[in-house]
Design brief:
This protein has 377 residues and is α/β, with parallel strands linked by helices. Helices cover 31% and strands 24% of the residues. The chain has 2 domains: 2-168, 2-Layer Sandwich (Ribosomal Protein S5, domain 2); 184-374, Rossmann fold (3-Layer(aba) Sandwich). Helix 2 crosses helix 3 (81-91). Mean pLDDT is 89; it is low at 362-377.
Length: 377
Amino acid sequence: MLARAHAAGLVGIEARLVEVQVDLGLGVPQISVVGLPETAVRESKERVRAAVRNSGYEYPLRRITVNLAPAEMKKEGCAYDLPIAVSILAANGVVDPARLSTFLLAGELALDGRLAPIRGALPLAAAARRAGIPDLILPTGNANEAALVDGVSVFGAATLTDAVAHLTGMRPLSPSVVDRAALLEAAVAYDVDFADIRGQEMARRALEIAAAGGHNLLLIGPPGTGKTMLARRLPTVLPSLALSQALETTAIHSVTGLLNHGPLIAVPPFRSPHHTTSYAGLVGGGINPRPGEVALAHNGVLFLDELPEFSRESLEALREPLEAASITIARTGGTVTFPTDLMLVAAMNPWRSVALLPYLRWREDSRGLCVPRLCQR
């Protein structure tokens, strides 16, 4: 018997639909997963088998073939566990296969059937809306995040049993509903405050001007003069994020698994990578490209402390994201574009500034202030 379910895979900061096809055939009992699955997806067959049995359902002793279409798209992550398990149960007669056509499923299964949160719930919900899929079943921990997308009914399930009970109509789940405006207002909170700064009148004035105009900034001073302290408080005087900016920033952090403090990021992010960060870690990369620090600082501040210690390759790579407010990365796994509309703040010691002179160009701006800019070679 054949069953199909809708799933989605992450490509950059977007999600693309994947159809999970399960066939129960004759032969030696085993399960095969095809369709360019990476290691975590291939291992899902063991998690699914244990979760189905420990949830009280019969696992079919048949030759099970799981196809993830389209086959040319590489599948990675654990979000395919739930759609694979539900498709097997549908092919075995537990769930009506026709019922699955209106749902997009995603979730990582524990061996006892619990559903663990996944990365990229917000892009998954957006993909369901674009495809016209009205309902979405996710782990409970991702429900509020996915509910930020209008036009999709989001159901949070704690276990595989909850998801199956909803699909069969035995115990329907309640849809998750969030007030986006109230959530945006409630999420505005900072760990530090610009008002904490005492003295430093010239430095504070420079930060205020930079924040008002969205200018990049270079802080030069001896150790202990407060360069890092000033930079960390700069986001607190930046304008609050609009809802569209907050959703875009949240999506970037969601696909990288950094959304730990709530379903929505409402304040400008602050990223401060160490100077030993690799080129790929700074601008993004990998076989299947993922966001780097410049994308994670989108709509916020990227702080580079000890600027001369960064490699020349990394500094040269900052040119495109600073000029175009986006960066395009081409790898064997595909080509993706990440938004990088950010403020660059760098700090360095005065005796190291000579090493950076070839990279800097001083010019006078409209206010008569001399500001450094990266050279355009």
